[in-house]
């Protein structure tokens, strides 16, 4: 038992005029060792292992408290001071007249009633204080719980926001990739169309060239007979060629030669244009 509780219990015993020395069967001047020895002797008759069915828990508790009070210097002094005050008051009361004694007893009864009321109020106040402490602790626990819940909700909201931003970023990247892929496909289709167009134009040019060559070969006149061929054997000299003779190798006449030359030049120009367009597309 703490010292303050012992002192309070000692004062209460003194106010009740309870003789703790007599309870332990020791003298008021008994030492600590004598008090301990007396307690062990009394405890043999009051201990549950020794008393059996006649065990009195209240008596055993009183013996323990009496021992604790009397071996504690502060509690023993408080108890003895209280007992001396009661003894002095009793002696003064005995010296009073009957009227004074009744007045003193009435005053003492009022003091005891006031002390009991104060003790009850203190207990009630202590209960209220305990309830207030419990209520404050409950409120603090609720506040901590709300704070923890709010922190958890905040983390959940932050995680959801991060997830939303991540999805938006992924969706945007996917849209950009799809747009880039679509642009590339369109570019490929455009290049295919241009190549197809160029191939058609090339085929058309080849057909035109073939037609030009065919028409040139059909429109060429056969070479005229050389005049004076018979005389060549006689004189030994060949007659000079006329304007209608074909001086180019292969024959065919001058108009056909010019047509083939123009067709070859046109084909070269077309080939240059086609290569220039292909290089531009590659760039």
UniProtKB/TrEMBL annotation:
<keyword id="KW-0143">Chaperone</keyword>
<dbReference type="GO" id="GO:0005681">
    <property type="term" value="C:spliceosomal complex"/>
</dbReference>
<dbReference type="InterPro" id="IPR052094">
    <property type="entry name" value="Pre-mRNA-splicing_ERAD"/>
</dbReference>
<keyword id="KW-0963">Cytoplasm</keyword>
<feature type="compositionally biased region" description="Basic and acidic residues">
    <location>
        <begin position="202"/>
        <end position="212"/>
    </location>
</feature>
<dbReference type="GO" id="GO:0005737">
    <property type="term" value="C:cytoplasm"/>
</dbReference>
<dbReference type="GO" id="GO:0000390">
    <property type="term" value="P:spliceosomal complex disassembly"/>
</dbReference>
<feature type="region of interest" description="Disordered">
    <location>
        <begin position="151"/>
        <end position="283"/>
    </location>
</feature>
<protein>
    <submittedName>
        <fullName>DnaJ subfamily C member 17</fullName>
    </submittedName>
</protein>
<feature type="compositionally biased region" description="Basic and acidic residues">
    <location>
        <begin position="151"/>
        <end position="192"/>
    </location>
</feature>
<feature type="compositionally biased region" description="Basic and acidic residues">
    <location>
        <begin position="266"/>
        <end position="283"/>
    </location>
</feature>
<feature type="region of interest" description="Disordered">
    <location>
        <begin position="90"/>
        <end position="136"/>
    </location>
</feature>
<dbReference type="InterPro" id="IPR001623">
    <property type="entry name" value="DnaJ_domain"/>
</dbReference>
<dbReference type="Pfam" id="PF00226">
    <property type="entry name" value="DnaJ"/>
</dbReference>
<feature type="domain" description="J">
    <location>
        <begin position="19"/>
        <end position="83"/>
    </location>
</feature>
<keyword id="KW-0539">Nucleus</keyword>
<feature type="compositionally biased region" description="Basic and acidic residues">
    <location>
        <begin position="102"/>
        <end position="111"/>
    </location>
</feature>
<dbReference type="InterPro" id="IPR036869">
    <property type="entry name" value="J_dom_sf"/>
</dbReference>
